[in-house]
Specification:
The protein has 227 residues and is an all-alpha fold. It has one domain. It contains 9 helices and 2 strands. The chain has a two-stranded antiparallel sheet. The longest helix is centred in the middle third of the chain and has 35 residues. The chain is elongated, with a radius of gyration of 22 Å.
Length: 227
């Protein structure tokens, strides 16, 4: 009798824990999916063209594509050498390479969080795939992520000049993220118009993914409740 009472008492606590884990993991996985856009040449190269990078750098578009693809490969796959060169001369100077190695390190941490979030949701999904309440938790997490994404995206766009330095101050407190766009290639390859385009795209993609998660999870939860 005592054992039955304990199980009944513990059930709400377990459900709260599962719900909290779902709310923590869902936005991380959505953020990872949307940020993946920034680390593939299929999106980056057209964005550079829209920002006029070839004209800014004075390089042919094919050379911009080659250099950019090499930098993306170094920051995503590694090793983080960032030693791509043009006519034997390194494209990035020592400070720029140091900053990109810091970016590589931050990405490794974030990728670990995304993997952990994915594994968490996979385990919870297997365990609770037949529970309508869990799918409703996923739906609420998706809706909350979409709402936060809209508000954050609007604020980021409205106050980009302040938000961009603040972002670097948080993730790169060592302060090696300021470069002279007149002479340093990193800022020329990825100028401010590129980053405003990137921020808009990432926030829009995140909101879209979150809305899709909300709709699908809500439908699955309602279907289970009806059975």
């Amino acid at each position: 009798m005592r054992k039955v009472r304990t199980q009944v008492t513990d059930a709400p606590a377990r459900r709260r824990l599962v719900t909290a884990l779902t709310f923590a993991a869902t936005p991380v996985l959505i953020a990872g999916a949307s940020l993946a856009l920034l680390f593939n040449p299929w999106w980056v190269l057209p964005a550079q063209q829209r920002a006029g990078v070839a004209a800014i750098t004075g390089l042919p578009q094919a050379e911009v594509a080659r250099v950019t693809t090499a930098i993306i490969a170094d920051v995503t796959v590694g090793p983080p050498d960032f030693a791509v060169a043009i006519d034997g001369a390194p494209v990035l100077d020592t400070a720029e390479r140091g900053h990109m190695r810091d970016v590589y390190g931050v990405l490794r941490v974030f990728a670990g969080l995304v993997v952990l979030a994915g594994v968490t949701l996979a385990v919870l999904g297997i365990r609770h795939r037949g529970d309508g309440w869990w799918w409703r938790a996923v739906a609420r997490a998706g809706l909350a992520t979409a709402a936060v994404g809209v508000v954050t995206g609007v604020l980021f766009a409205a106050f980009f000049d302040a938000a961009w330095p603040a972002f670097h101050a948080v993730f790169f407190p060592q302060g090696n993220s300021s470069f002279d766009p007149r002479v340093e290639r990193l800022t020329q390859l990825f100028p401010t118009p590129f980053w405003t385009d990137a921020a808009t795209t990432v926030f829009a993609a995140g909101v879209l993914i979150a809305v899709v998660v909300w709709l699908i999870a809500r439908r699955l939860g309602s279907g289970l409740d009806a059975t």
